Request: fold
Amino acid sequence: MAYAALRTLLFGLDPERAHDLATWAMARGQRLAGVRRRVARRLGTRDPRLAVEILGLDFPSPVMMAAGFDKNARLVPMLTALGFGGIEVGTVTPRPQPGNPRPRLWRHRERLSLQNCLGFNGDGMEVVATNLGALAERTVPIGINLGKNKDTPLAAAADDYLRLVEHFATLGDYFVLNLSSPNTPQLRDLQVPDFVVRVLAAAAQLTSAPVLVKIAPDMTDRAAVELATSAVSAGAAGIIATNTTTAYERIPGAREVGGLSGAVLRERSFELLETLAAALGDAAVLISVGGVDSAAEAYRRLRAGASLVQLYTAMVYEGPGLVARINRELVELLERDGLARLTEAIGLDR
Reply:
C-alpha cells in the first residue's frame, strides 16, 4: 500500500526522471547502515531452501536483478538488502557515453510493460571498476553485462568486449556478452556463431570466470538454438534469454523504437526458454528474464529449465518489496509440491 502511493507520485514524472529519483533515494539510503540493516531485516531474509549453487557460485536465491537497473554498480548494497540473490550490473561500455537522446523511456501501464531506447548510457568501465572495487562486502554474485561503444565499428566490436573482460577479470563473478540490445545500431548483427565463437575463445585467455551470452527474443527458434549451441560448444557457460523485443505490434500505439520489456514479453521469453532447454539439456546454464513478475512465473521458469531468473520491469510496477514476496512464495510452492529445496525442483540434485 505504501508503494502504491509512492508509485502514483513517481508515475506523475517522466519515466527516466522517476528512475533517477528512485535510484538516488536508494543510493542515499544505503549509505546509512541503519537504514540498510532495517531494509535487510524486513525484506532480505534468506531461506536456505532457495539457495542455488551454479556456475561455481552460491546464489542465496534464484531471483536476480537484471542488467539495466544498476548500470554503474552504485546500488549493490541496497539491492542485496532487498533480497536479490544475484545482481547483474551494466550494460558497461569501455568508454563513457550519454546514450540516445531523451525521451528514451516510456511506460505502457495497461500492459505492465516498459519501452526503452537508452542506448548503453553509462559512466564507462573505469568508473564501474572503481565502484565494484570499493564495495565493503559482496554477499551475492555480481555479474557484469558487457557492450560495445556506439561509435565502435562492428569490425572492431570484439576488441571492445575483450577489453572489458580483461579490465574486469578479477571483479566480475561472471560476464555477459550483450549482443542483443536493439538500442545500439547493428549490435544484433553480432548474434552470429562466428563472432561469438571468436570472442569466447579469446575471453577464455583473459578470465577464469564464467562467460554467458544474452540473446534477443526476436530471433527464430532455429537461429537461437544454432547460436546457443555454437556458443556453448565454444565455452560459454550459459545463455540468458531474453533481451527486450522489437515486436511493437504487441502494444497498439507503441513507438517503433527501442525495445519492449515486462509482461508483453512474458510468453515469448518463456517459449524460447523451453526451446533452449530442450536443445541444450544439461550442457549449459539457462537464466530466464522477460516478464518475470511473481513467484508463480519464476517457478514456471525454474521448472521449465532455468536455473536462475531475473527481473527489472516488474519492480517498477510492484515496488521494492516484490523480491521478498517472490522469495517467500517460492518456499510456499516448494512446500506445496513436497520438495525440500529448490535444487530438487530444477534438477540440480540429480
